[in-house]
Structure to design on (160 residues):
C-alpha cells in the first residue's frame, strides 16, 4: 500500500520504521490492551517473525503513527483495526483523516466490515470512532487491569 491524501501518506510498515514505532507505542501504553514496553530487539524480532499487515502514517514527511490490523477474515471480508499517533500530531484531525484513508482503501480491497476495541475511559478515541461511523456493539467488562482497578472495553463495528 502507498496512498496519499493532502499531507498524509499511508504505506506498508517496514523495518526502518521500527524505532519510531516503538517510540510511539511507548507513548500510547495507557490506551493499549497490552501495555508492555518492548525493547527494539524484541520489536524487530516480532516484525521479522510475524510479518504484520501494519501501515505507517507519514505526515509532512515524518513518521507520525501507524495503523494496526489483525484478524483478517477473508471469508467474511472483515478486519480488526487500531491506530496509534505520536502525541505531537494529536489534535489536528490526522487520526480521523488517516482512518478515513485506510477504511476507504479497505473498502476498495473488498472488505465489508471493520472492528475495533476501545477502553471505555478513552472518551476522545470513542468520540473519534463515532465520528467515523463506528457503532458500539458490546462491552467487555473488566477487560484491562490498570493498577488496582479494571477498565471495560467497548467493541465497535463499522460497515464499509
Amino acid at each position: 500500500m502507498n496512498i496519499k491524501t493532502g499531507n498524509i501518506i499511508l504505506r506498508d510498515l517496514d523495518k526502518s520504521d521500527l524505532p519510531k514505532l516503538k517510540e510511539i507505542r511507548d507513548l500510547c501504553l495507557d490506551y493499549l490492551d497490552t501495555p508492555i514496553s518492548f525493547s527494539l530487539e524484541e520489536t524487530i524480532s516480532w516484525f521479522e517473525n510475524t510479518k504484520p499487515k501494519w501501515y505507517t502514517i507519514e505526515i509532512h514527511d515524518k513518521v507520525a503513527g501507524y495503523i494496526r490490523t489483525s484478524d483478517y477474515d477473508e471469508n467474511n471480508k472483515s478486519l480488526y483495526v487500531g491506530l496509534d499517533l505520536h502525541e505531537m500530531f494529536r489534535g489536528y484531525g490526522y487520526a480521523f483523516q488517516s482512518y478515513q484513508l485506510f477504511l476507504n482503501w479497505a473498502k476498495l480491497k473488498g472488505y465489508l466490515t471493520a472492528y475495533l476495541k476501545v477502553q471505555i475511559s478513552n472518551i476522545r478515541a470513542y468520540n473519534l470512532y463515532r465520528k467515523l461511523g463506528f457503532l458500539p456493539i458490546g462491552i467487555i467488562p473488566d477487560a484491562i487491569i490498570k493498577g488496582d482497578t479494571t477498565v471495560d472495553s467497548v467493541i465497535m463495528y463499522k460497515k464499509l
Q: What stands out?
A: The helical segments are 18-27, 40-50, 94-108, 123-131. The mean pLDDT is 95. The two ends are 18 Å apart (CA to CA). The beta strands are 2-5, 8-12, 55-59, 62-73, 78-85, 113-119, 135-146, 149-159.
